[in-house]
Amino acid sequence: MLLLTPEEMGRADRLAAESGIDSYGLMIRAGHAVSAAFLRLYPAALRADVLCGPGNNGGDGYIAAEALKQAGVEVALFHLGDPENLKGDARRAFQACSIDGKPVEDYRPAAGAVIIDALFGAGLQRPLSDALCMLISQVNEAAEPVIAVDLPSGISGLTGKVQGAAFSAAHTVTFMRAKPGHFLLPGREHCGRLDVFDIGIPQRILEEAGGGHHLNGPDLFASALPALTASSHKFRRGHLGVFSGGPSASGAARLSATAGLRTGAGLVTLAVPPNAAMVVANQVTAVMLKAVPDVAALDEWLEDKRLSAFVLGPGFGVGEKARAFVSALASRPLVLDADGISSFADEPDALFALLSGADPHCVLTPHEGEFARLFPDIAADDNIGKPEKARRAAERANAIVLYKGADTVIAAPDGRIAINANAPPWLATAGSGDVLAGIIGGLLAQGTPAFEAACAGAWLHGQAAKRAGEGLTAEDLPNHLPPLSGVS
Ligand SMILES: NC(=O)C1=CN([C@@H]2O[C@H](COP(=O)(O)OP(=O)(O)OC[C@H]3O[C@@H](n4cnc5c(N)ncnc54)[C@H](O)[C@@H]3O)[C@@H](O)[C@H]2O)[C@H](O)CC1
Ligand SMILES: [K+]
């Protein structure tokens, strides 16, 4: 699903105005969507306390306040700043509002009221003043329900970051398309339930204004998933190679291998150091085993061109061997995870050189710590959010970057960005990342392009966790993967 950044939404507004759409009409529909949400959600509320800011978000608030008054609701209205300074549509909305307001400094939350937060939306530019932070924390502590207009004030629609303080809303009513900040953390947790309301901007304008941000879901990758046909042969379904660590560290790779097989790879082989062969052989059945002691053995194995993708990293060990193996594998579809990433902490440029020049076919799956090891300057830049960090990293590495977390972001060097939001909290468990690497490897092995494989991997991983339920262990995940044929 296409998401629009606040900047892109502003562009959509301008394009809409240029094509003859009345911008005040958009504001009226936005305000009415908010008043309708209030009436639907809180029919027994004693009062609406409407807090209006100095821009068009405030304009939506004035429209909502007047509509609620007309519907018979008791409304208390509060302005931030002097409403005589309002401009354009917001000024018109203020003038059309028959309620006398007070300065927002006078506002005190009281029991039984529902607060409509129309202070700031897409136009939030800087951290809120101390006085506003104080007001917001009083409202949050009072725990009366808040309906946020467009975004909870204080949340950046671009990054999901809190600018000083932010309302914890029970509901957020946004317009036309959700924004990245509705799904990125901590923004997602401040939004409550999100409603996206159509105020009448045509789809073609939204697409023209929109860029690379998407909510991750089947619309991004379903058509690139492998289809199982009557003639599917196990070699046509690809052969995934997963590299294992030593005798006491093979569990992670076994989890990846099982996940790769469950995702539909025709064959999966665990490549093991010879001293781990017996241990691993005792633990696997459908997964095959191959002793690969060193780079020479790896080069020989790689002559088999039916080997269609690889996973390296889980439990592999950090160091020279990992670097040498990656250098042998760099031209093939590869998921580089965990120790495979950390092995390049001292020389990330060596990894980027290996991956440069070709179509991106490697998926890097760093969590926050691993991301900072490979991209220290990008990780430390507080001026940009997670999607932009992932995008810059993908561009630098010429790889798909799947930046893990409760709000995993997947980015491609060409600027495509997907924000994944289907992972339940109980997915954060030991070995979960190894399973994710295996799912992506299984899809790469079947010929799914790297960006789509990474998006599908993150989404399938989240779905498997939901199906397995709370209390799952990583071993449960592969058994709960939904069938690919049902993903649409
Ligand atoms: N197509 C749509 O989605 C429509 C959206 N509408 C609403 O319009 C707002 C965006 O309006 P805009 O005027 O651009 O921005 P804001 O109202 O969010 O705020 C701008 C206003 O606030 C000042 N400001 C910014 N940051 C701060 C700060 N930290 N402290 C103090 N003041 C700040 C800034 O200088 C401006 O004066 C969108 O969210 C929707 O709610 C339309 O109504 C309909 C079309
Ligand atoms: K708001």
Automatic annotation (TrEMBL):
<keyword id="KW-0520">NAD</keyword>
<feature type="binding site">
    <location>
        <position position="117"/>
    </location>
    <ligand>
        <name>K(+)</name>
    </ligand>
</feature>
<keyword id="KW-0479">Metal-binding</keyword>
<protein>
    <recommendedName>
        <fullName>Bifunctional NAD(P)H-hydrate repair enzyme</fullName>
        <ecNumber>4.2.1.136</ecNumber>
        <ecNumber>5.1.99.6</ecNumber>
    </recommendedName>
</protein>
<dbReference type="InterPro" id="IPR036652">
    <property type="entry name" value="YjeF_N_dom_sf"/>
</dbReference>
<comment type="subunit">
    <text>Homotetramer.</text>
</comment>
<keyword id="KW-0456">Lyase</keyword>
<dbReference type="GO" id="GO:0046496">
    <property type="term" value="P:nicotinamide nucleotide metabolic process"/>
</dbReference>
<feature type="binding site">
    <location>
        <position position="150"/>
    </location>
    <ligand>
        <name>(6S)-NADPHX</name>
    </ligand>
</feature>
<keyword id="KW-0521">NADP</keyword>
<feature type="domain" description="YjeF N-terminal">
    <location>
        <begin position="9"/>
        <end position="207"/>
    </location>
</feature>
<keyword id="KW-0511">Multifunctional enzyme</keyword>
<dbReference type="GO" id="GO:0046872">
    <property type="term" value="F:metal ion binding"/>
</dbReference>
<comment type="function">
    <text>Catalyzes the epimerization of the S- and R-forms of NAD(P)HX, a damaged form of NAD(P)H that is a result of enzymatic or heat-dependent hydration. This is a prerequisite for the S-specific NAD(P)H-hydrate dehydratase to allow the repair of both epimers of NAD(P)HX.</text>
</comment>
<comment type="similarity">
    <text>In the C-terminal section; belongs to the NnrD/CARKD family.</text>
</comment>
<keyword id="KW-0413">Isomerase</keyword>
<keyword id="KW-0547">Nucleotide-binding</keyword>
<dbReference type="InterPro" id="IPR000631">
    <property type="entry name" value="CARKD"/>
</dbReference>
<feature type="domain" description="YjeF C-terminal">
    <location>
        <begin position="217"/>
        <end position="488"/>
    </location>
</feature>
<feature type="binding site">
    <location>
        <position position="252"/>
    </location>
    <ligand>
        <name>(6S)-NADPHX</name>
    </ligand>
</feature>
<feature type="binding site">
    <location>
        <position position="433"/>
    </location>
    <ligand>
        <name>AMP</name>
    </ligand>
</feature>
<dbReference type="InterPro" id="IPR030677">
    <property type="entry name" value="Nnr"/>
</dbReference>
<dbReference type="InterPro" id="IPR017953">
    <property type="entry name" value="Carbohydrate_kinase_pred_CS"/>
</dbReference>
<dbReference type="InterPro" id="IPR029056">
    <property type="entry name" value="Ribokinase-like"/>
</dbReference>
<feature type="binding site">
    <location>
        <begin position="56"/>
        <end position="60"/>
    </location>
    <ligand>
        <name>(6S)-NADPHX</name>
    </ligand>
</feature>
<feature type="binding site">
    <location>
        <position position="57"/>
    </location>
    <ligand>
        <name>K(+)</name>
    </ligand>
</feature>
<feature type="binding site">
    <location>
        <position position="153"/>
    </location>
    <ligand>
        <name>K(+)</name>
    </ligand>
</feature>
<dbReference type="GO" id="GO:0052855">
    <property type="term" value="F:ADP-dependent NAD(P)H-hydrate dehydratase activity"/>
</dbReference>
<keyword id="KW-0630">Potassium</keyword>
<keyword id="KW-0067">ATP-binding</keyword>
<dbReference type="GO" id="GO:0052856">
    <property type="term" value="F:NAD(P)HX epimerase activity"/>
</dbReference>
<dbReference type="Pfam" id="PF03853">
    <property type="entry name" value="YjeF_N"/>
</dbReference>
<dbReference type="Pfam" id="PF01256">
    <property type="entry name" value="Carb_kinase"/>
</dbReference>
<feature type="binding site">
    <location>
        <position position="367"/>
    </location>
    <ligand>
        <name>(6S)-NADPHX</name>
    </ligand>
</feature>
<feature type="binding site">
    <location>
        <position position="315"/>
    </location>
    <ligand>
        <name>(6S)-NADPHX</name>
    </ligand>
</feature>
<comment type="similarity">
    <text>In the N-terminal section; belongs to the NnrE/AIBP family.</text>
</comment>
<feature type="binding site">
    <location>
        <position position="434"/>
    </location>
    <ligand>
        <name>(6S)-NADPHX</name>
    </ligand>
</feature>
<feature type="binding site">
    <location>
        <begin position="404"/>
        <end position="408"/>
    </location>
    <ligand>
        <name>AMP</name>
    </ligand>
</feature>
<dbReference type="GO" id="GO:0110051">
    <property type="term" value="P:metabolite repair"/>
</dbReference>
<comment type="function">
    <text>Catalyzes the dehydration of the S-form of NAD(P)HX at the expense of ADP, which is converted to AMP. Together with NAD(P)HX epimerase, which catalyzes the epimerization of the S- and R-forms, the enzyme allows the repair of both epimers of NAD(P)HX, a damaged form of NAD(P)H that is a result of enzymatic or heat-dependent hydration.</text>
</comment>
<feature type="binding site">
    <location>
        <begin position="121"/>
        <end position="127"/>
    </location>
    <ligand>
        <name>(6S)-NADPHX</name>
    </ligand>
</feature>
<dbReference type="InterPro" id="IPR004443">
    <property type="entry name" value="YjeF_N_dom"/>
</dbReference>
